[in-house]
Design a protein that fits this description.
Layout lengths: L6 E6 L1 H4 L6 H12 L4 E7 L3 H13 L4 E5 L10 H8 L4 E3 L1 H16 L10 H5 L2 E3 L3 E3 L8 E6 L2 E6 L3 H16 L8 E8 L4 H14 L4 E5 L9 E8 L5 H17 L4 E3 L11
Parallel strand pairs: 1-2, 1-3, 3-8
Antiparallel strand pairs: 4-5, 6-7, 7-8, 9-11, 9-12, 10-11
Length: 280
């Protein structure tokens, strides 16, 4: 599979919807996927309700999403219902997966040896994490217990990840090559940024509209600041490097800077972006 052209994320957990937990997983996943040339088209936060998750999974498959990520709900407790719902949403049954069971047993044994848990013995709650949808593949969890799960349903690759951030990151970092294929490598997206001496987006709107129309392959976005604060606004230009050459991105950035200067604005080049690309 090449870098996923269309990605959706289902973030699952009542604790997110009541505001008890801040969802940092989605931000991290969106940045990771964008950096590898994939487009996140939709993010949905769902409660731990079986029917809600089943419906969301089925609808994403019907939309022929390239990659569907679910986060949360893989643990041993009764309210961890994600895999049961993924199975139902794809018309499958849950089966005890021997590789997943071995992974769960090995991790409990490891944490027991380290003195982190009091017992390594399996019980029904622990075994629950090894019941996967029919045809699924277990993804090793290098940090915690519950395996990640990879399932192919028609045109959609479904990946279920734990909600614990360190576990989610550990699985994604070691499996991202498998999930996104040869196109999903570092640097497959490009980012340029500049600063404009302005804190009123409406003044820049005609220029931004013109450049957006001239370069439809490039996402151009001004980041608003509260009126009355420092008159300095950041503008991002980003694109998929597999589809748009670096030269075209640089050209768009230069044209944008020139057009803003024609409005009488001071424009400064960014020293360095988060992705390592410079300004225009």
């Amino acid at each position: 599979m090449e870098a996923a052209s269309k990605v959706e994320i289902l973030t699952i957990g009542n604790e997110l919807l009541i505001g008890d937990i801040l969802d940092t997983n989605t931000n991290w996943l969106c940045r990771l996927l964008h950096d590898r040339g994939s487009r996140v088209a939709r993010v949905t936060i769902l409660p731990d309700i079986h029917g809600e998750i089943v419906g969301a999974v089925a609808e994403a498959v019907e939309r022929q999403v390239t990659l569907l990520l679910t986060t949360g709900g893989l643990g041993p407790t009764e309210d961890d219902r994600t895999l049961e719902a993924v199975a139902a949403g794809t018309g499958r049954r849950l089966r005890l997966h021997q590789q997943a069971l071995a992974q769960v047993e090995q991790q409990y044994a490891r944490f027991f040896r380290q003195g982190i848990i009091a017992s390594r013995e399996m019980n029904p709650a622990r075994e629950k994490m090894a019941w996967l949808p029919e045809g699924a593949e277990a993804l090793a969890n290098p940090v915690g217990i519950a395996p990640g799960v990879l399932l192919q349903q028609d045109q959609t690759t479904i990946v279920s990840l734990p909600g614990v951030p360190a576990e989610l990151k550990g699985i994604m970092e070691q499996e991202v090559g498998k999930l996104l294929g040869p196109g999903g490598t570092e640097g497959s997206s490009s980012l340029r940024r500049l600063w404009a001496g302005c804190n009123d987006e409406s003044l820049m709107d005609p220029v931004l509209r013109r450049l957006t129309a001239a370069y439809p392959e490039i996402y151009i976005k001004s980041l608003a600041t509260p009126l009355g604060e420092q008159a300095r606004m950041e503008i991002l230009l980003t694109c998929n490097a597999h589809q748009v050459g670096e030269q075209l991105l640089a050209q768009a950035c230069l044209e944008l800077a020139a057009a803003l200067r024609e409005l009488g604005l001071v424009v400064a080049e960014a020293e360095e972006s988060d992705s390592g690309d410079g300004g225009c």
